[in-house]
Protein backbone atom coordinates (compact mmCIF):
# COMPACT_ATOMS: atom_id res chain seq x y z
CA UNK A 1 0.00 0.00 0.00
CA UNK A 2 2.74 2.51 0.91
CA UNK A 3 5.60 1.00 -1.07
CA UNK A 4 5.71 3.88 -3.58
CA UNK A 5 4.68 6.66 -1.19
CA UNK A 6 7.25 9.28 -0.29
CA UNK A 7 6.85 9.28 3.49
CA UNK A 8 8.14 12.05 5.74
CA UNK A 9 8.54 12.62 9.43
CA UNK A 10 7.62 15.57 11.59
CA UNK A 11 7.96 16.84 15.13
CA UNK A 12 6.90 19.83 17.18
CA UNK A 13 8.72 22.82 18.64
CA UNK A 14 7.57 25.66 20.86
CA UNK A 15 8.82 28.44 18.55
CA UNK A 16 9.16 28.24 14.75
CA UNK A 17 11.39 31.30 14.53
CA UNK A 18 13.95 29.81 16.93
CA UNK A 19 13.77 26.49 15.12
CA UNK A 20 14.34 28.13 11.74
CA UNK A 21 17.42 29.96 13.03
CA UNK A 22 18.83 26.83 14.71
CA UNK A 23 18.27 24.37 11.86
CA UNK A 24 19.20 26.86 9.14
CA UNK A 25 22.06 28.85 10.66
CA UNK A 26 23.55 26.51 13.28
CA UNK A 27 23.04 23.14 11.59
CA UNK A 28 23.34 24.61 8.07
CA UNK A 29 20.30 22.79 6.69
CA UNK A 30 18.12 24.17 3.93
CA UNK A 31 14.93 25.34 5.64
CA UNK A 32 11.81 26.67 3.95
CA UNK A 33 8.55 28.12 5.22
CA UNK A 34 5.34 26.55 4.03
CA UNK A 35 3.15 29.39 2.82
CA UNK A 36 -0.16 27.60 3.33
CA UNK A 37 0.53 26.64 6.96
CA UNK A 38 2.76 27.78 9.82
CA UNK A 39 5.29 24.98 9.25
CA UNK A 40 8.95 24.63 8.45
CA UNK A 41 10.30 22.11 6.03
CA UNK A 42 13.84 20.78 6.50
CA UNK A 43 15.39 19.66 3.24
CA UNK A 44 17.68 16.74 4.02
CA UNK A 45 20.34 15.56 1.56
CA UNK A 46 19.05 12.84 -0.74
CA UNK A 47 15.63 14.38 -1.26
CA UNK A 48 14.24 13.73 2.21
CA UNK A 49 12.08 16.23 4.05
CA UNK A 50 11.15 16.70 7.69
CA UNK A 51 8.27 18.90 8.82
CA UNK A 52 8.52 21.04 11.96
CA UNK A 53 5.36 22.54 13.42
CA UNK A 54 4.75 24.86 16.33
CA UNK A 55 2.66 23.45 19.16
CA UNK A 56 1.53 25.66 22.06
CA UNK A 57 1.75 22.84 24.60
CA UNK A 58 4.95 21.38 23.10
CA UNK A 59 6.84 18.86 25.19
CA UNK A 60 10.31 17.84 23.99
CA UNK A 61 10.67 14.36 22.61
CA UNK A 62 12.32 11.95 25.04
CA UNK A 63 13.94 10.08 22.14
CA UNK A 64 16.20 11.07 19.25
CA UNK A 65 14.10 12.72 16.52
CA UNK A 66 16.92 13.21 13.98
CA UNK A 67 20.27 11.46 13.52
CA UNK A 68 22.93 13.07 11.35
CA UNK A 69 25.54 10.59 10.04
CA UNK A 70 29.02 12.16 9.86
CA UNK A 71 32.37 10.88 8.65
CA UNK A 72 34.30 12.49 11.53
CA UNK A 73 32.32 12.73 14.76
CA UNK A 74 35.09 14.53 16.67
CA UNK A 75 35.17 17.30 14.07
CA UNK A 76 31.36 17.53 13.93
CA UNK A 77 31.09 17.85 17.72
CA UNK A 78 33.90 20.43 17.81
CA UNK A 79 32.29 22.52 15.04
CA UNK A 80 28.84 22.43 16.63
CA UNK A 81 30.27 23.37 20.03
CA UNK A 82 31.98 26.36 18.37
CA UNK A 83 28.53 27.36 17.07
CA UNK A 84 27.13 27.27 20.60
CA UNK A 85 25.55 23.83 20.62
CA UNK A 86 25.61 22.14 24.03
CA UNK A 87 25.98 18.37 24.04
CA UNK A 88 24.38 15.95 26.45
CA UNK A 89 26.40 13.92 28.95
CA UNK A 90 25.28 10.48 30.06
CA UNK A 91 26.59 8.18 32.77
CA UNK A 92 24.24 5.19 32.93
CA UNK A 93 25.00 1.48 32.86
CA UNK A 94 25.49 0.72 29.17
CA UNK A 95 25.42 4.40 28.14
CA UNK A 96 28.32 6.67 28.97
CA UNK A 97 29.74 9.69 27.21
CA UNK A 98 33.38 10.73 27.41
CA UNK A 99 34.88 14.17 28.12
CA UNK A 100 33.93 15.24 24.55
CA UNK A 101 30.30 14.12 25.12
CA UNK A 102 30.72 11.18 22.72
CA UNK A 103 29.44 7.67 23.48
CA UNK A 104 31.83 4.97 22.28
CA UNK A 105 31.87 1.22 22.60
CA UNK A 106 28.57 -0.61 22.93
CA UNK A 107 26.78 0.35 19.74
CA UNK A 108 27.50 3.22 17.38
CA UNK A 109 29.76 6.14 18.18
CA UNK A 110 27.27 8.95 18.81
CA UNK A 111 26.85 12.34 20.50
CA UNK A 112 23.48 13.86 21.43
CA UNK A 113 22.36 17.48 21.62
CA UNK A 114 19.05 19.31 21.71
CA UNK A 115 17.36 21.92 19.57
CA UNK A 116 16.02 25.13 21.19
CA UNK A 117 12.74 23.33 21.95
CA UNK A 118 14.53 20.51 23.78
CA UNK A 119 14.10 17.82 21.10
CA UNK A 120 17.00 15.34 21.03
CA UNK A 121 19.22 15.16 17.94
CA UNK A 122 22.47 13.30 17.32
CA UNK A 123 25.58 13.12 15.23
CA UNK A 124 26.57 9.53 14.59
CA UNK A 125 29.80 8.18 13.13
CA UNK A 126 29.26 6.54 9.72
TrEMBL record:
Residues 5-126 form the VOC domain. Pfam families: Glyoxalase. This is VOC family protein. The lineage of its organism: Bacteria, Pseudomonadati, Bacteroidota, Cytophagia, Cytophagales.
